[in-house]
Amino acid sequence: MSHAHATFVFEDRVLFGEYNGTSDVMLPLMFDTKKGVSDHWRKQEWKDCDCGNDPVPCAAHTDYGGGFWWIGEACLVCRVFVGPKMPFDYDVDYVDAADPPKADVLR
Ligand SMILES: [Zn+2]
């Protein structure tokens, strides 16, 4: 279980992804459903934003290691989490694994 589920919380929606706990890195692909995540699970697909639009803030949460989250940015056009992808270079907040933060953390 070195990979874990991720949730990306935006002002107006929630998207889902995959966290690589071995490398402690958030994989960038974001999906509307957990089924979408399952279809791409452990494929190590990598995509960067290349559209030139400004990213928007989101809270990135994973249930890995008991659960934690941090504030990052994502591109909703490219459907990728921009970063920071390696949270331990950054500040994280620990929460319950099953309890992603609410959108009010973005305000
Ligand atoms: Zn983009």
Describe the fold and architecture.
By secondary structure, the chain is mainly beta. The protein has one helix at 34-39; strands at residues 3-9, 14-20, 25-26, 56-62, 68-75, 80-83, 93-94. Strands 1, 2, 3, 4, 5, 6 and 7 form a 7-stranded antiparallel beta sheet that branches. β2 (14-20) and β3 (25-26) form a beta hairpin. The radius of gyration is 12 Å and the shape is globular. The mean pLDDT is 92. The protein binds zinc ion. Zinc ion binds at residues 49, 51, 53, 75, 77-78.
Helix content: under 10%
Work out the strand percent.
Answer: 25-35%
Number of helices: 1
Q: Are there runs of 5+ residues with pLDDT below 50, and where?
A: none
Biggest β-sheet strands, sense, barrel:
7 strands, antiparallel
Following the backbone from N to C, one meets helices and strands in this order, namely EEEHEEEE
**Which small-molecule species are bound to the chains here?**
zinc ion
Rg, Cα atoms, Å: 12 Å
**What kind of assembly state do the chains in view correspond to?**
single chain
Number of strands: 7
* Gross geometry: globular
What is the overall pLDDT average?
Answer: 92
